[in-house]
Amino acid sequence: MVETADDRLIMLSDFGEQITYSPIGGDSKTVTAIFDQVYESVEVGGSVPIAMSQPRLTLRTADVEGVEEGDGFVVRSLTYAVTIVMADGTGITEIALEAQ
Predict the structure, then answer these.
(1) pTM for the complete prediction?
(2) CA gap 90, 3 in Å, rounded
(3) Which end of the chain is more exposed for a tag (fewer CB within 10 A), N or C?
(4) Residue span of the structural domain in which 75 resides
(5) What's the CA gap between 34 and 85, in Å, rounded?
(6) Who wins on pLDDT, 85 or 90?
(7) What are 78's strand-pairing partners?
(8) CB-CB contact of 29 with 21 (8 Å)
(9) Rounded Cα distance, 39 and 53, in Å
(10) Sequence-ordered list of residues with C-beta below 8 angstroms from that of 3, at least 6 positions apart, any chain
(11) Which helix (H) or strand (E) holds 63?
């Protein structure tokens, strides 16, 4: 069972990478996160659904206190903006991103 912020960092360090978090009007910092490019099937009104990429981050809530829509992340030299923040109440947050 993952109990502390340090335990969560160890878990993320095993599978994550260093990325840059840039809150609007704040100072940038480096955090550890797991980056996923999830593909989702989307119905657009035709008979065949299309696959759409939905980049996401999983990271410690403590590393992104106050994160909100529009804040930025740089992952693998690409810049993304936050579109959805999903804190799970256990100290882990998932963030949906949009490429800039």
Answers:
(1) 0.85
(2) 9
(3) N
(4) 5-99
(5) 15
(6) 85
(7) 75
(8) yes
(9) 5
(10) none
(11) none
Residue 95 burial by CB count (10 A; 0-12/13-18/19+): exposed, middle or buried? buried
Beta carbons within 8 Å of 32's beta carbon, 6+ residues apart:
9, 12, 13, 16, 17, 18, 19, 59, 60, 63
Going through the chain in order, the beta strands assigned E by DSSP cover 17-22, 29-42, 50-60, 72-75, 78-87, 92-99
Mean pLDDT, to the nearest integer, of 27-45? 88
Q: CA 15, CA 17: separation in Å to the nearest integer?
A: 7
Cα gap 33→31, rounded to integer Å: 6
Q: How many domains does the chain have?
A: 1
Q: What is the pLDDT of residues 57-73, one digit of tens each?
A: 999 999 999 999 999 99
Q: What is the CATH number of the domain that holds 50?
A: 2.40.10
Side chain identity at residue 44, one-letter code: V
Phi, psi of 25 (to 5 degrees): 75, 10
